[in-house]
Amino acid sequence: MTYGLKDKIIMVTGGSDGIGRAVAAALGEEGANVVVLGRKEEALAVTQARVEELGGQCLAIPFDLLKFDDYGKLFLALKDQIPHLDGLVHCAGELARCSPMTDIKVKDFRKMLDINLTAPNMLTQMMMPLIKRAEAASVIFTSCDMAEEDQMHWHGYGMAKRALPYAAAMWQGENPQKPYRFNTLNPGRVRTEIFKRAYPGLHGRHVPAPVVVAPAYLQLLSEQSKDVRGQSLNAVDMLPALQNYVAPEATEDTDA
Q: Rounded CA gap, 255 and 209, in Å?
């Protein structure tokens, strides 16, 4: 299935690995022009090579989303390189070890709020001039199960992720008649580094790989979802592959 994203210009954060890399690769397969951000330069190069191998174009930019003072420099570097942004996909995220609220350190709490809530909102703000140049655009925030479930010990990460649906609704409410839309997507439990830290007792084969959830992001970026605005969505409701997911039998080669 194709999503009509050929030649679209899409920025993806967290492109070094996990869901970000999977979304970037899926966009490459569509023939899109992908701008990937991530902290790990070597891993970004792998993502870039994969996108281009699949038929897309890729601009890989090593970037630390916690360095807020550099956001303006990023915009200035991009504004003359790309004409607009048709989409912005926020996949970057981080989870420190799970800890009771009575034990969490201030610096760790603030970091979880900043990378998972402040960063996607401030990056959206900084990229709005490029988003406004597009005929239509889609901004996707990545949430998680904490958006609907009360789970203990997730401190700033859980609070930030729960706030994202409100953030998307706020962005949309402040731009009700504009040709750009803001939504939140919960990919569910996915075989990523965050999953390994969050669920150390659960084997990775029990949850789908990032490539399985990537089509949900492409659907939200496409014209198929042009009327979906300010919503909080679950990938499992959008993808039969997730609804019917069956964990493979354990082998020595199965990812943990």
A: 9
Encode pLDDT of 10-41 as tens digits: 999 999 889 999 999 999 999 999 999 999 99
Entry pTM = 0.89
Q: CB-based burial of residue 231 (10 Å sphere; 0-12 exposed, 13-18 middle, 19+ buried)?
A: middle
Q: What pLDDT digit, counting tens, does each position of 186-236 carry?
A: 987 776 666 556 555 555 566 777 888 899 999 999 999 999 999 999 988
Distance between CA atoms of 158 and 167, rounded to whole angstroms? Answer: 14
pLDDT band at 107 (very low <50, low <70, confident <90, very high): confident
Distances (CA, A) of 106 to 29, 171, 198: 42, 28, 20
Query: β-strands 232-234, 9-12: how paired?
Result: unpaired
Q: Is residue 92, in this structure, part of any structural domain at all?
A: yes
Write out the H or E segment, with its range, that includes residue 37. strand 33-38
Q: Is residue 238 part of a domain?
A: yes
CA distance 28 to 24: 6
Q: What Rg value do the Cα atoms of the chain yield, rounded?
A: 17
Distance separating alpha carbons of residues 27 and 237, to the nearest angstrom: 21
116 in a domain, yes or no?
yes
What the block records as the tokens of 35 is: 């701008």
